[in-house]
Amino acid sequence: MRPRRERILLTGLIALVLIPAISINAKPPKPSPAPLRWRPLMGEYVRDTETVIILESDGKLCAAFKQTEVAPLKQISTDSFEFDSSTARKGEHVVFSRSRGKVTQVTIGPLAYQRKPLGPEEGANQLKIQPMRPVPTLIKEALAAQPPNETGDFLPTDLVELRKLDPTIKLEIRYATTNNLFGTVFYSQARAFLQRPAAEAVVRVNRKLKTAGYGLLVHDGYRPWYVTKVFWDATPDDKKLFVADPAKGSRHNRGCAVDITLYDLKTGKPVEMVSTYDETTDRAYPNYAGGTSLQRWHRDLLRSAMEAEGFTVYEAEWWHFDYKDWQKYRIGTPRFEEIGR
Q1: What pTM was computed for the model?
Q2: DSSP 8-state class, residue 270
Q3: Model pLDDT for residues 101-126, shown as the tens digit of each residue
Q4: Is 100:106 a contact under the CB 8 Å cutoff?
Q5: pLDDT digits (tens, 9 = 90+) for 20-65
Q6: From 41, 55, 333, 336, which residue has the greatest number of CB atoms within 10 Å?
Q7: Cβ(257)–Cβ(310) below 8 Å
Q8: Could you give the maximum distance between any two Cα atoms of the chain, in Å?
Q9: Contact call for residues 311 and 324 (beta carbons, < 8 A)
Q10: CA distances from 152 to 3, 18, 157, 215, 330 (A)
């Protein structure tokens, strides 16, 4: 994986070219879905240290080079394209190659780029990683450990259940199932809690999004500290950017972070984003330029709505939002079944 600073630079600069700011009040035109015939072609392709992103933008299949160079393509046949006449690469051929029906390579001019695997296996909605040590052992150790000692004045903890404030907020708490990054059940109950001000802000976001035809789907809220320790100890070093250091505690532990996405009010189904939830790849970055115009539009609509109510998106995960007052609350350890006793 790229060093943290380089990864942010790469995704951010490309995004500046492609992605306009979205405001729920301004209601910019919603893009049409990308043609299905292009979907198998889209993704990242690598040659040595160079990465080319094949994406859809404004109804055109495009290739993104060198952080800021984005060139639209003109389709010649199913797997053959050439650069549009408006680009400096005018007329240069782009040919995709398949093996057993799957696209494995793109040849741009004389250079061949190999497809980079991204996200979960086909047909799955959750990427999984191999824990560094057996998770049951790590859970036992974490339950016996103590969170970091904190000094100072903190607000009293007032964790409230989101669905008790607004039953139209949907839940898909994957850590209460085995369908999560580590394939292990961590929560005994599929519930989502936040500190009251953060929870009320989420309810306001959900109310506003309904005017645009969407609702909120929550994957996680308050997380007991011991679970954060398990995540950290189970995660390989090259992916620790995506988990919190238990020595500092997580904003989830303070009840001021929420993992969240959108669902369509008409169908009741989650909308498709640029990456899947809890995906430890570049696609998880909130400014990642790949994917389709519609995926990016949904991602940016969610971000705009959350930011308007005092949340900030985490730099490496489009789904993770921190509430503005997170530092005013202590790290929490209670399990869900203990809350409210």
Answers
A1: 0.89
A2: B
A3: 899 999 999 999 999 998 887 777 88
A4: no
A5: 445 666 567 899 999 999 999 999 999 999 999 999 999 999 999 8
A6: 55
A7: no
A8: 69
A9: yes
A10: 34, 44, 14, 38, 10
